Amino acid sequence: MKKLAIIGASYLQNPLILKAKEMGLETHVFAWGVGDVGEATADFFYPISIVEKEAICEKCKEIGIDGICSIASDLAMLTVNYVADKMGLSGNSLSCTYKSTNKFAMRNALTEKNVPCPKYVLADDSVNVDELGFEYPIIVKPTDRSGSRAVTKLKSKSGIMAAIASARDVSFEKTAIIEEFVEGKEYSVECISYNGKHTLLAVTEKFTTGSPNFIETGHFEPAPVDEKTYENIRNVIYGALDALEIENGASHSEILIREDGVIKIVEIGGRMGGDCIGSSLVQLTTGIDFVKAVIDVALGNVPDLTSGKKHNAAGIKFVFCREDADYCQEICSKYQDLVIESSVEEITDRKVVDSSSRFGYFIVAGDDAKLVRDIVAK
After folding, report:
1. Are the beta carbons of 53 and 39 closer than 8 angstroms?
2. How many Cβ atoms sit within 10 Å of the Cβ of residue 341?
């Protein structure tokens, strides 16, 4: 029986654990022991923090793993690629890891290869906010976090130091980046790569709270873009993946498309998209088992991209408040045949400040694409 190491044990990683077991693999899961679901579903669980890459690597050598992977976590990929590199397993280089988890390094790599992205500057101690050379509005964000954490849009210089401080506070390396704000429609792109060959699986339409924090309220697939735009997206993303040296495994790219059709890269993660995009929506709309493909590549195998049962459209809607919870209940009652999954926790007065603090979600899929999109976009 082949042995697969999985970094992380939260609900985000559980589909990966379950799929690996379904494939007949022995699962070895690493995470801080806090009672997450993956601790119970794993064949073997090790209470080692996902950032302790050296300790995890030593344990993986002792176990004799055949592959290592994670989904929906930038932080986990630091350890995944470190262990893969040290053990000669399928993964991405340490150079790629840095470029795909640090937004400033990413911008530098993309700019060097002429991949279109917003203007940017590192908001370190030397930055002069009076001489940015950008037109407002601007975006301030941490260099190394995801999930809309401490992302702020500013229409003027007022509040910029507070935004930088907030971004630095949640950043692992305590740095922030300032970018020009690009007007456009937001999308994300899911790809799988194997030995440098990329395959675009899905383009997803994104809905957010908008300014100032841009927290995702929902996602819809397949995004309603025409064939020419789809091909433009493919070309830009493949160039970006090459620039970042992403050669193996999943990738999740966030883009903006301006009214004139120009595409700008917001950011790219060398991992599957979160928010159930990779673990649910892609398979619902393409019939391709994305999670299995990630495991295939981690084991050094060509990913199985066979298409099975699929729907014309699928989407996920998130719960921010009591009104959203009531809407979820209404949809689950009115469209039982469309609802694939739902999970809503008790609504409290907790403020939703990023994707991790939302109260739940529901997933819908069906043949009536307009109906599915209307449900998600509401």
Report:
1. no
2. 12
Extract the tokens encoding 336: 């039982």
Region 211-215: mean pLDDT is: 81
What are the residues facing 29 on neighbouring strands? 6, 45
What token pair was written down for 312?
């014309």
Reply yes or no on whether the pLDDT at 132 is more than 90: no
Secondary structure element (H or E) that encloses residue 282, with its range: helix 282-286
What is the Cα–Cα distance from 365 to 373, expressed in whole angstroms? 9
253 by Cβ neighbours in 10 Å (0-12 / 13-18 / 19+) ranks as buried
194: closest CA among 251, 137, 112?
251
HSE value, Cβ hemisphere, 13 Å, CA-based, for 201: 33
Q: Confirm if 180 and 161 have CB atoms less than 8 A apart.
A: no
Q: What is the dihedral of CA 276, 280, 281, 286, to 10 degrees?
A: 150
Cis peptide preceding 47, ω within 30 of 0: no
Instruction: Give me the residue label for tokens 């998209």.
Output: 273
Q: pLDDT value at position 150?
A: 85
Do residues 104 and 143 make contact, with C-beta atoms less than 8 angstroms apart? yes
Task: Give the global pTM.
Answer: 0.92
**DSSP code of residue 90:** S
pLDDT 10s digits, 56-70: 999 999 999 999 999
Which residue type is seen at 245? Answer: E
pLDDT per position as a tens digit, 146-192: 767 888 999 888 889 899 999 999 998 899 999 999 899 999 999 99
